[in-house]
Specification:
- It is a single chain.
- The protein has helices at 12-45, 62-83, 88-107, 113-132.
- Helix content is 69%, strand content 0%.
- It is elongated.
- The chain is built from four helices and no strands.
- The chain has 140 residues and is mostly helical.
- The chain has one domain (25-49, 58-137).
């Protein structure tokens, strides 16, 4: 007796690993977004929280950097909530927002180096986790 298998059948191990990486990415994006929210609040509330760099090419008012971090951090938190549903739109937006936040945090290294490098690493881990997950594990 012959049995037929569907080519779209996923093993439980593959699905569990993919969902584990998706949850990891969602948690990392959520934590990083909250940290960027805090960083934005610090920049808006008190300019002296950050080191002042006099001859920096990308020098903005520190309140401006605070608003940038606050806005992008809020978007990261919202997108991370979408990742918990395994939605494809959330995966695409999460990779995009994490890439933008890596650039933003790179530009603010002179103001707060340890925090910037920490967030760059967290956003990098988020992009990695989302890129290694197979597309068929996400809902369209």
């Amino acid at each position: 007796m012959a049995t037929t298998t569907s080519p779209h059948h996923r093993s439980a191990g593959v699905t569990a690993a993919a969902s584990g990486l998706t949850i990891f990415a969602a948690v990392m994006l959520f934590i990083s977004g909250v940290l960027d929210l805090f960083r934005g609040i610090m920049g808006i509330a008190e300019n002296e929280v950050f080191l002042n760099t006099p001859n920096y090419v990308f020098k903005f008012d520190l309140t401006s950097w605070g608003w940038i971090h606050l806005a992008f951090g809020a978007v990261a938190v919202v997108v991370s909530l979408g990742l918990f549903t395994a939605a494809t739109w959330a995966r695409v937006l999460a990779i995009g927002i994490a890439a933008l936040l890596i650039i933003i945090n790179f530009l603010t290294i002179p103001y707060y180096p340890v925090w910037s490098i920490t967030l760059i690493a967290l956003y990098g881990a988020t992009i990695w986790a989302l890129c290694v997950v197979r597309r068929d594990t996400f809902n369209d």
